[in-house]
Amino acid sequence: MAQARVLHVLKKFQPDFTGEGVFAERIAPVMDMLAPCVEHEMLATVTPRPEQGYGGSSALRKVHYICPREGLAHWQQELRQVWWFLRHLHRYQVVHIRTHSDRYFITYLLAKLFGKRLIISATLDDSIPGLVKTYRPLLRPLALRLFRLFDAFVAISPRLHRETKTVMVAGRCHLVPVGIIIPPLFPQEREGRRAALGLASHDLVLVFVGGICKRKDPLFLVEQLPKIVSAHPHALLLVIGPILEPDYHRQMVDRIEALGMERHVRFIGRVPDATPYLGVADLFTFTSKIEGFGTAVIEAMANALPVVVRELPGVNDVFIENGENGFYFKKDEEFIFIVKSLIDNPELRIRVGMAARASVSARFAMRTIAARYLEIYGVFVDDAQPMEKELAPDTLARVEALPAAIPITTSDARRHICSTPDDLPVVLTIIDAEEEFDWSQPFSRHNTSTHSMAAQVLAHQIYDRYGVVPVYLIDHAVASTPESITVLNDLLQDGRCDIGAQLHPWVTPPFLEEVNNRNSFACNLPLALQYEKIASLTETIHRNFGAAPQIFRTGRYGLGLRTGDILKSLGYRVDTSVFPYRDYTPIGGTNFYGCPTSPYWLDTESTLLEIPVTCSVVGRLRRYGPRLAPLAFSSAATRLHLPGLLARAGLLERINLSPEGTTLHDARRLVKSMIQAGQRVFTVTYHSPSLAPGNTPYVRDGRDLARFLEWLDGFYAFFVGELGGVPVRWQQVYETASPGRLSLPDFAHAHRQAHSPCKAVEGRVSSLSREA
């Protein structure tokens, strides 16, 4: 299959908790690794759209919510779902119904009429015979015939698989268990990790993971806990999961108090990943009465925990060999006997736990399960992409385990836009420090000369006058060349610059990809190779400059959907790869239309900040820019010279804040216009080779260089003297954006004390806004 798109349909999705929703989020990144040409989107038919938007898996290109917050009657919900399918179904090749969401089958009929591949999953008690029984007896024959519209039936347990095969063609029925990411083990760090979670070294930790409800039956554990505590006074039960039934939770709390077990039970609540707790526990207990599979059990087994679970025939007895890689029980007495045996025998816990890890690693690795789903979708993939086969297995495992939670370019990122506290504008200066090469020629690994770095002192003569401390985003060629290292270290030690990272894939090891235009955009490389290149660049900078970089840019703005996930895992705090009002997809890059122009957080924890390139539109049609720009600046419009006509008419003009290709007059217009629109954080960006004539199209000779330096001098004079603005370092923007941290007026006062010749005119910003 060529470029394809899969629509996953669930009734409930984030922030509502469902096991299938969690699994969909976890498997999507691995499917994306195996088949980047296949895009995945989610449709939630019952969960209302969250006020803050969706902030989950970056491997889900879009998440659609069709239910308004006030809720709908059933027939209204059905009509809304049908209308949504009519408008959007043409965009998809595969529709995967993860929970039966249309009892009238209208949307399923539409999918077949549109020629889509239609798949349905069974995950709990929803095999096809089970679903048919939910209809009135008179309608069951019709329902059964309509279920035969589906091209494939997926069951996650042998029981569900057997049931579906009794009424459907066996060739369409697929047994595909839930997959898991096999986590690394850190036995030497166990005590430190326990302490970080507030657990004492002598605590014997039992863990339950699941929703707090009658079906999962964690109350059973509370009732048995006194017997366990009598054998081990330091026994501690951690209950991890959301409260699905408040009355049941209240009943648990009452029983804990009645039994005097308050010191022996902790409710952890819902967590995005239970691995930190599983990795330091002593044993895992699971008491659910009904399960389609029991993902929490195999996740515990993957963490080398001995598991004690209630026996569910056809479900957990399929992967648990009683007494070998885990235990299951039927009666209360069996549960207590098994738990006490494990408590008294640490060697038994270790032996069973390691056997559990080995067995689930062989059967339920997420990569294998993801490949199975892709085959059902009609996408056949190798076990690894050609470039991935040359990477170390531990690299692939590390990348598969990356949490996919930072979608940088999706519209939901808008929920985290942050602005400065008052009217004060600030400017951050970012220099793409890189090798010299002919921009009109093909890329080459041999172009690694960085002689232009010696010329950076020319700009610093201007920067010193205005208190500008730029950040050099250096690529691997600059980071590994002794002469460049010396130049930058001298500036760094004098406090005249900061150092960050810029990824040019073609000059950054490991060199596994073919050097061409497409691969110059990092977003087109396999995720594992992206990770290795960024990690290699980060390590080189750390080694040669004494500290790991914390601010990043992808060369050519080749930002991938999961670049943020990589950056967060490597300790970065800022990304600067978003270029608003630009679309590089015609040449193989990323589309940034719709991205904010102001800084915004990339994660719900507010640890990774996006500081976009300053680029926007000016003119009388500026307010319509986000909608008009994709058309006005498209390739077709450019061939018709439409951008030039719109600019000369004063209607719409795209400008980015840079001495490369932007006049000082236009830069002033841009800043004034954006201030009027509420923008307060600006970035000046250019390439380091421009300070040595002949390296870039913007500076061909000495006269061009003089104009370049005059632009810098003139812009900072305008920004500091006229606007009353303040040059800042990237750390100051980060600290200001963080809740409860410093404010920019504090930085402004310090800056003006240090650079008194550049005193600002108070109130000038408001008047300039009116002039713009």
Write up what this structure looks like.
The protein has 772 residues and is of the alpha/beta class. It contains 28 helices and 24 strands. Strands 14, 15, 16, 17, 18, 19, 20, 23 and 24 form a nine-stranded mixed sheet that branches. Strand 6 (152-155), helix 6 and strand 7 form a beta-alpha-beta unit. Helix 2 (74-88) runs parallel beside helix 3 (106-113). The radius of gyration is 29 Å and the shape is globular. The model is unreliable at 740-745 and 756-772 (pLDDT under 50).
Spell out the blueprint of helices and strands.
Layout: E1 4-10, H1 19-34, E2 38-48, E3 60-67, H2 74-88, E4 94-97, H3 106-113, E5 117-122, H4 128-132, H5 140-147, E6 152-155, H6 158-165, E7 173-175, H7 190-196, E8 204-209, H8 219-231, E9 235-240, H9 246-259, E10 265-269, H10 275-278, E11 283-286, H11 295-302, E12 307-310, E13 327-329, H12 332-344, H13 346-363, H14 366-377, H15 393-400, E14 426-433, H16 457-466, E15 471-474, H17 476-479, H18 482-493, E16 498-503, H19 527-545, E17 551-554, H20 563-569, E18 574-575, E19 600-601, E20 609-610, E21 615-618, H21 625-632, H22 635-639, H23 642-648, E22 653-656, H24 664-676, E23 681-687, H25 702-722, E24 726-728, H26 730-737, H27 744-754, H28 764-771
Parallel strand pairs: 1-2, 1-4, 2-3, 4-5, 5-6, 6-7, 8-9, 8-11, 9-10, 11-12, 12-13, 14-15, 14-23, 14-24, 15-16, 16-17, 17-18, 18-20
Antiparallel strand pairs: 19-20, 21-22
